[in-house]
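Entry for the shared binder. Reason: the reviewer on the internal report wants the predicted structure included alongside the sequence.
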Amino acid sequence: MLSKIHNEMNKMICQYIQMPEIKELVLSFSKEQFKLNLHWSKLTLYSHWMFEGKSEHIHKVAAITELIFLASDILDDIQDQDHLSKPWMKHSKDTMFNMILIMVLSAISEFNVINKQTNTISVNKVNQLIIQSIGGQEMDIKNRVDSEEEYFSMLELKSSSLIRLACYTGYSFSNHNNENQTNRLDELAGLAGIIHQLENDINDIIITNHKNDLLHKKRTLPVLFLLKHSNEFPIIKDYYDGEITKEQFLEKKNEVNQIIQDSGCIEYSKVIQNLYINKFDELFESLEAVSPWKEHFRDLVYTTE
């Protein structure tokens, strides 16, 4: 199954990219994505099969989804300076922005081709979900979050939109879905996006030698908790306000990590995450979909990667 999707990705890349050097570069990124078990394309497949979908195009559709997510992952890594060992992090930002454009435009072009044959998917909706995700990413990198309400609005845009996209491309090609059930699946996808991002933000609050949200002055849920109680933890506010430098902050790394452990910010964030998990579980039970694909979908969105 995954090899078939990977082959479809590579065929698409070869079809739309004529310049040999660029083609080889994007093919190498596709190969790297294959090592991650094509997580996103499986969401598309399960969302198709759980509504009794039998489209002959579904593996190509899943490959298109994976290509869009690959472009999104590359953009995210560049902006966050994360996963530095990935092949796309070994090239200039200018080159990679060009590659991202090529991948997204190739994917949208292929959706248009399939839609002319099937008239099943709204390419405008696909574009809208991509744009929403980029809007959320812009809020994130600009740190335009000052409250929990703004934080969750950002997650809805940045994380939930993409998971909704993966699901939408799957169920759109099924003739057996109904609006009530697909609306529930859209809501489940939104909840899954928030649950995943909360997991990432909880894991990234402790200062280590790897990616850390505090050092980048991100405003995640645990950070908002710390800033809300800044009278108890003035060093956090001082760093975010520019009163102390990054180097001075790092000198107090052990003290800061102890503050994080003692503050309750992790426990608070986990309580909020559990509220979303409980809501997901309750809604999932009411989803009318075919087994085992329904259960595979749940297991997949509960897997943090």
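Summary line for the report: The mean pLDDT is 91.
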